[in-house]
Amino acid sequence: MVSALLRAPAPTPPNRRTPVNDQPTPAGAPAVDPSTWSFETLQIHAGQAPDPATGARALPIYQTTSYAFRDTDHAAALFGLAEAGNIYTRIMNPTQDAVEQRIAALEGGIGALLVASGQAAETLAILNIASVGDHVVSSPRLYGGTHNLFHHTLPKMGISVTFVEDPDDAASWAAAVRPETKLFYGETISNPAGDVLDLEVVAAVAHEHGVPLVVDNTIATPYLIRPFEHGADVVVHSATKYLGGHGTSVAGVVVDSGRFDWAASGRFPGLTTPDPSYHGVVFTDAVGPAAYLTKLRVQLLRDLGPAVAPFNAFLIAQGLETLSLRMERHVRNAQAVAEFLDARDDVLSVNHASLPSSPWHAQQRKYAPKGSGAVLAFEIAGGVAAGKAFVDALVLHSHVANIGDVRSLVIHPASTTHSQLTPEAQLASGVTPGLVRLAVGLEGIEDVLADLRVGFAAAAAAVDASTALTAAPALNDTPA
């Protein structure tokens, strides 16, 4: 059966051994119930127990391409999906499997698929249910790479995308729906606009029209927002960012809630009709709620191949073990930076929903009461020249195209991450010419603020120099 391939998250092994000392539960003692574990416990223990062969407590790196079969019948059973097991690391690897179970447990999903990058994760999440002639409805407030995928690459595949005019308005989403629409898409906290998606409202509109809501939860992480609790159906992450958290590995993940009824609307024949590549299996009949995730792995990952390296999976697991601790410090530091920026006269605006002045402050308090993440952006007085001078003067902040590192990071989105967008598309994404994006790290906050003051001093000097140059008389007007 195909269902044998899907492994539900299992934080403890079936012998009920405790993950602390690996001793069997004494007779008569209450059983350990992983479903009651806190987020902090799940991020350490979910999906992994001591290695049964060696007793190794840390997650092993299974650095192998393939796996030995017991005999020809065993091989046939694995290839026919009649038995669960590893065949080839492009599809499944034990290190990867442990990380998938852990992320699924943290998000509250039935399972997950770890892939080579966040871009691969969101692409596969869409291609799993959309093909030539189909349609996607999306928020316009997106990471630049996602916008390029939606605006340029998906249309080349015959998939059209409509960006709603106002992602905060339910009517805008409803008005964009077509008969061929397959999904709604948005970012729980957008990069770099910083808005908080009204998940319950958007999910309600999506479900009213028989389509799932797919959300990117990269900036929030499940520690700040658990989208499935608010109606989302599929979650994607760039695990490169806060899940990994140290700027050392590239990976992405797709998590399935298992709650969307793929058969009800008749919009998803790839899941509800026979798949000729697996002997005519109908995924919704064979695995029910796991249809989406199963097809994602055994068909798309098999055929397109964006497999995650076992070592990268291991590094993501290492990051997950401290996720809550890091996010608490990230949020605390980012809040201090947002308030520092908001109080400055040379800052025209600050994008961070934690500020009471933010249009999305109420939604932040509803969906992300612990904080709105560590990515923020601000418009500096003096425009592009001031912004460039600010970035170039920073010492502590690293000027890189990334977020979600322990180090504080800075970039000018209009000339980098969103540079391939038209000026109109940049504005729709929340990117203005003088916008500076910060991803606040874990350093001492006074050191972070001191570095920002250096940047503002350089920006002011650049503005003064530009003003003086403009005011100076032209050389040919100088008296002899």
TrEMBL record:
The modification N6-(pyridoxal phosphate)lysine is found at K241. GO terms for biological process: cysteine biosynthetic process from serine; L-homocysteine biosynthetic process; transsulfuration. GO terms for molecular function: cysteine synthase activity; O-acetylhomoserine aminocarboxypropyltransferase activity; pyridoxal phosphate binding. Its EC number is 2.5.1.49. InterPro entries: Cys/Met-Metab_PyrdxlP-dep_enz, Cys_met_metab_PP, OAc-hSer/O-AcSer_sulfhydrylase, PyrdxlP-dep_Trfase, PyrdxlP-dep_Trfase_major, PyrdxlP-dep_Trfase_small. One of its GO terms (cellular component) is cytoplasm. CDD domains: CGS_like. This is O-acetylhomoserine/O-acetylserine sulfhydrylase. It comes from Kineococcus radiotolerans (strain ATCC BAA-149 / DSM 14245 / SRS30216).
